[in-house]
Amino acid sequence: MTAHGSILELQVSPHLHTKVNVSSIMLHVVYSIVPVCLFGVYQFGWSALALIVTTTLSCLLTERVVCWAAGKPSTLGDCSALITGLLLALTLPPGLPLWMGAVGGVVSIALGKALFGGIGFNLFNPALVGRAFLQAAFPVAITTWTPAGAPQRFTSFVPSTFAWPFSRPASVDAWIAAAGVDGFTGATPLSLQKFSHIGTDIGDLFLGTTAGSIGETSALLILVCGIFLIWQGLMDWRIPTAVLGTAFITSLAFYVLNPGIYPSPAFMMFSGGLMLGAIFMATDMVGSPVTPLGVWIYGAVIGLVTVVIRLKGGLPDGVMYAILLGNALTPLIDQWTQPRIFGQRKKQHV
Amino acid sequence: MLGLLNQWRRTFSHGLHPPEHKELTAKRPVVRLPFPEVLYVPLSQHTGAPAKPIVRPGQEVVRGEPIAEADGFVSVPMHAPATGRVRSFEAVPSPRGRLVRAIAIDVYPSSDQAVLYGAPQDIDAMSPAELILAVQESGVVGLGGAAFPTHVKLRVPEGKHIDTIIVNGCECEPYLTTDHRLMLEQPGAVLKGLAIIRKALGAERAIIGIEANKPDAVAALRSVIRPEDGVEVCVVESKYPQGAEKMLIKSLLNREVPAGGLPVEVGAAVFNVATLAQIGELLPIHQGLIERIMTVTGEGIERPGNYLVPLGTPIRDVLRFTGLREGNPRVIFGGPMMGPTIASWDTPVTKGVSGILVLPQAVPENNGSAIPCIKCGACVNACPIHLNPCFLGQLARKRRYDAMDRQYHLLDCFECGCCTYVCPAEIPLVQQFRVAKQIVRERKAQA
Predict the structure, then answer these.
(1) CB nearest A13 (choices: B339, B345, B408)
(2) Check: complex ipTM more than 0.90
(3) Residue A298 with chain B: CB contacts under 8 Å
(4) Where are the beta strands (DSSP E) in B173-324?
(5) pTM listed for this prediction
(6) What values do phi and psi take at B272, rounded to 5?
(7) Cα–Cα distance between B189 and B276 in angstroms, integer?
(8) A161-183: pLDDT as tens digits
C-alpha cells in the first residue's frame, strides 16, 4: 500500500458530475440554428450567406478583441459569440449592407454582452441589442425587403449588399423587378397586413416561402429545430409555450372582436419573427428567469407585448422589443417569484 | 397537479437520475473480511458525546465485550469487535479528517473469534422504556450514514405521537449495494428489528420503502411478511435523493416535514434497513454492534463486492483484501454524491460507513478558466428542497451570507449535491453552501 503514498488527495463531494457543460449546451444550440441558416440561404441566396458570415465573423472578432483588451483568456470556446452572430443575421433583411451587419455584430458583443461582464452577466439578449441598434440607426435599410426564392439569387447579390459604409445603398427595385415579383416590392406578410390589409396564405407562412428576415420565415423549420433542443433537454419548453400560447390567446381575443380588422391567430403565430423569437431568442438562458413561475410570467409578457405592438403599435413586428422588455423584467420577476421551499411554514415573521 | 402525479408515482419533485454503477456489486453476496492484526475502535463513531472507555491498556477483551460506555443519553457504548488485548489509546483519523481517540486492540491471531459475550433476553416482556435502554446498550446507530443514535429517535417528545414507521431501503446513492444485499440475505432480521422498534414507538403503521431498481429485494421482503405483521412494502421511484428522510416521507406519506423541523412533527420516524437488521439480530441475544456490511467498489478496486467488516478495521486492511488498482486514487467513505474523501489509509471503518468507493482522481476539465453562471436554471429544477441554488451561488460569490440565510433559506440545504451535479458551468455550489452554512451558524452562535 505504501506504493501509493501515505497521504491521499482530498476532494469534496459530489464526486460525480453530469456530462453536460456550457460548451456542449452552446454547441447543440449552434447545431439547431444551422438548418435555419441554410434554409435562409436557400431562400434568399448569396446575399444572405454573405450577411450571415459577416455578422458571425464580426461577433467572433469583437469577442476576441474584448478578451484581449480585458487581459482575459479567450472565451471563443464557449461558442456563445458564435450563436450571437448567427442569431443576429437571422433577424436581418437579406439585402442589408454587409457593413451594417458588421456594426451590428460589434454592438451585440461589445454593448450587449462585454459591457455587462461577458457571458452570464448580460441583461439582454446580445443579438437583439445589436438588432435594436441597427433598427434605430438604419431604419430604411432594415426595412428594405427582398423576395424569397428570386431566380437570380444564386447568380447575383442584392445590389445593396456591398454598399460603402455611410453611403446610400444602391436601390434594390431593379433587382426585385428582375425577380418577377408582382406589386408589393417583396414586402413582408406583416407589413402587407398592417399597412395594406392584405393577408398571406397560412401555408406559405408555415413553410417559409415569404419575404422576411433571413431566418424568420419558416415556422415549420424553426419548430422542428426547437423540438430537437427540447428533446436534448437544452431548452426550457415552458418559455416558447408561454410566448406562443399567450400570443395565440391575445390575438384570438382581438380576432373574435373584429375579424375584419385583425388578422387570425394562425397568421399571428406563423408570421414575422414570433416563432424565431419564441424559440431561439426568448429562451436565452442568461436573460430569462430561473424560477418555475417566473418562466411562465416572462413568456406571457413577451407574447402579450408582441401582439399589442403588432396590432396597436406603429411597427409591423414587436417581437424584438417584447423580448428586450422581458429581459429587462427578468431580475424583478425572479425576485417576486421565489418558490415555496419544501416544508416552508406559512408566512413566518422574522 | 404535478403533486398528484408524484403521489401516484410515489416520488418527490425535482432530484436527478445519476448513473447507478450498482451492477459492479449488486449480485455479489456478502463476504466476511478476515480480521486485521490491529483494530482501532474510535470512541466517537456516532453523533453525540464520545463513549467513555472502560478498559485499560494491557487488558484482554473478548469479542462482543463492552469496552466503552455511553456518556449521557445522546451517546452509545462500544463493544470489542475482536478478541485480543488492548494495546493503547491512540489518535486516529476520522472519516471527516479530524483526529479522534480510539482504542487500539491487538487481535489474537489464533482465536476462533466466537462471540462469547451476551445472553438471551425476552424482548416480548420488555416495556418501551426498557427497549429504548436495550437499543442504547446494543450500541446501534443509524447505519445509513448519519450514525445518529437510534434509541434517541425512540424517545418521542411529550405531546407528539409517531403513527408511521418508515423503513428506508432506498439506497439512492450510486455504487452502494449494502442495503440491497442485506434485504436479500437477511429480510427476517429487518422485520424482527422493525417489530421491536414498532413496539417501542407504539406506531400504527409500518412501511418499507424500496427504490424500483431493486425488485428482488422487494420480493424477498414480501416473501417473509405475514399478513398479521401489518407491514407494507412500497416501491418508490429510483431517483436521487429518494433515501433522504424528508424526501422518503413525502414520497410515501405525502407529508412535508416542516423546514428546520424533524420527522416526528409529521408523525413519522425513518429507520435504515441495516439499522433495523442489527437491532433484530442483537437485541434478542443482548449483544453489541461489532461489525457492519459495506460495499467496497469503484474503478480503483480489483475485487468489488459487499463485505462484512469488523468495526475499527483500517481501510488499508480492507483494501489489501479487495485489491487496489495502481493510480492516483480518490478514496470516498459512503456514496459519491455526499461521501467525504479520506486523507489517510489509517482511517478505520466506523458504524456509519456504508461503503468505500475508490475512483480515479478526476482531471479538471476547464483548466481553471471558470465559466460564470449562465442562469440556465438546472440547479433550480434539481434542488429537492426547492431552494434557488442559482441565487444562493451568486450571493456566496459576494460573501453575502446573511442574505443567503434570511432570504433564500440557506440552512434548509441538506447538502445532497444535486445542484453541483447538474451545473453546466461546474460551479461548486454545494461546496460554497457548506462553507456559508458553517459561517452563518457561527455568526448565530455569537449573536
Answers:
(1) B339
(2) no
(3) none
(4) 205-211, 231-236, 268-272, 291-297, 305-310
(5) 0.90
(6) -70, 150
(7) 7
(8) 888 888 888 888 888 877 766 54
